[in-house]
Specification:
This protein is an alpha+beta fold and 400 residues long. Helices cover 53% and strands 12% of the residues. A hairpin with a 3-residue loop joins β4 and β5. α10 packs antiparallel against α14. The longest helix has 33 residues. It is globular and about 60 Å long. The structure holds 5-S-methyl-5-thio-alpha-D-ribofuranose and magnesium ion. The site of magnesium ion has 4 residues, from loops.
């Protein structure tokens, strides 16, 4: 068993050379660590001909906080295994794993550097027509094939054990459902938002709905989730969409992933109020974002129901109308989780550059007030939405 060390550029390059699998024997390799995420090291190793791969290594702590926040290296195993499982059922939208080493917490991945991270592209008002449909395809396919509708009960239970991810789940449990709703040292917001934060923290109705969402997150192993579907976990170009970084993966409520994605599109929607000054251009971008949310809801439901009609193996779950009823509940859950994503990204520990990148303080503040209000209203009204149409109408009514 190899002892863990955190690589520098030379060690990452040496590791790849020793493997001897990815480049010609005499290739002139270079290596560059460029990770800017919250948790890991990310190296690109390239040869003189432009061939390249990515080596991702988990650190034994959260990179964004430092060694004072220790974190399991097992997340590298989880991440690579989720990618492999999701890749088997949705290859076209899942980053490809080329090699893993659990002792070193290393995963070697295809280099998607010819594509771009969605968050940065949206912040530059770039649009991708396939986005909503592609993410719906990924979420519906990966969640259906890892659910009780498809897996044999014993197989499902074994997988739930294999993907038990307590430390990373605990981060989500605290950052999404605890910190924003009480005083916490990890919360991060300007004094001018104190009254808004207090409003959320003192609303019994909101706290009950958040408790319900957390309870579901704790105890609903519906399927193998990605666990962190924000717009920094999605590579895009005009022809394709690929999901990366499922280190928060576990068996949880399907609506969590769908809601995280919708929540991030809504964060960008609100941020555009402070980013694009010309009204027609801003409206165009915001209308694009709403269209992608609508496409995502519609396609998620129709792909899931088609898969369920053709491939449900459990006898009781084949009951007429049950798959539809199940998905309507997932969509309701997703609205609530979208609301928690809006709130935690505004006043919690981990923000988004969509909003933090707005230079003018008072403009940024207006956007933050909007995301808090939108998040709160989504959580409070999610249960009123009986289907995808009313879910979309709720979103539209709250952003106008
Ligand atoms: C300490 S980790 C903070 C956030 O970064 C990850 O991408 C997850 O979204 C997590 O909540
Ligand atoms: Mg990540």
């Amino acid at each position: 068993m190899a002892d863990y060390i955190a690589f520098d550029n030379a060690q990452a390059l040496n590791y790849i050379e020793q493997l001897g699998e990815f480049f010609e024997p005499n290739a002139q390799l270079t290596c560059n660590e460029f990770g800017d995420g919250n948790l890991n090291l990310v190296f690109r190793i390239a040869d003189q001909n432009g061939n390249s791969i990515i080596l991702k290594q988990a650190l034994p702590y959260a990179r964004c906080v430092g060694e004072s926040w220790p974190l399991t290296l097992d997340r590298a195993r989880i991440e690579a295994s989720v990618l492999e499982k999701h890749g088997l059922v949705c290859e076209q939208h899942t980053a490809k794993v080329l090699h893993t080493n659990n002792d070193l917490a290393v995963t070697v991945l295809e280099d998607l550097g010819h594509m771009a991270i969605l968050r940065g592209e949206l912040n530059q008002a770039k649009t991708f027509t396939r986005l909503g449909t592609d993410v719906a395809t990924y979420l519906a396919t990966s969640s259906f094939y890892h659910s009780d509708f498809y897996l044999e009960p014993a197989e499902k239970k074994a997988l739930v054990q294999e993907f038990t991810n307590p430390e990373l789940c605990s981060i989500t449990e605290e950052l999404f459902f605890d910190d924003p709703y009480r005083t916490s040292e990890r919360n991060n917001y300007p004094a001018e938002l104190e009254a808004d934060a207090q409003r959320l923290q003192q609303s019994p109705q909101l706290l009950r709905q958040v408790a319900q969402l957390k309870s579901l997150f704790f105890s609903a192993p519906q399927s193998l989730l990605h666990g962190d579907v924000h717009t920094g976990s999605i590579f895009v170009d005009q022809n394709s969409t690929k999901l990366i970084d499922p280190e928060f993966g576990f068996f949880g409520p399907i609506g969590f992933d769908l809601g995280s994605f919708i929540g991030n599109l809504l964060l960008n929607y609100c941020a555009q109020n402070g980013r694009i000054k010309e009204t027609p251009k801003r409206r165009q971008m915001q209308s694009y974002l709403l269209t992608q949310i609508q496409l995502c809801l519609n396609d998620f439901e129709s792909i899931w129901l088609t898969l369920a009609a053709q491939h449900t193996r459990d006898l009781a779950l084949q009951a007429p109308g049950y798959a539809q009823q199940f998905i309507e509940q997932i969509i309701q859950d997703a609205l609530g989780y979208a609301g928690t994503e809006l709130i935690r990204r505004t006043i919690g520990l981990a923000h988004v550059v969509d909003i933090d990148g707005i230079e003018d303080d008072s403009t940024r503040l207006q956007v933050q007030k909007q995301t808090l209000l939108l998040g709160e209203q989504l959580i409070l009204h999610a249960e009123e939405c009986e289907n995808k149409e009313s879910a979309y109408q709720l979103i539209v009514s709250l952003v106008q």
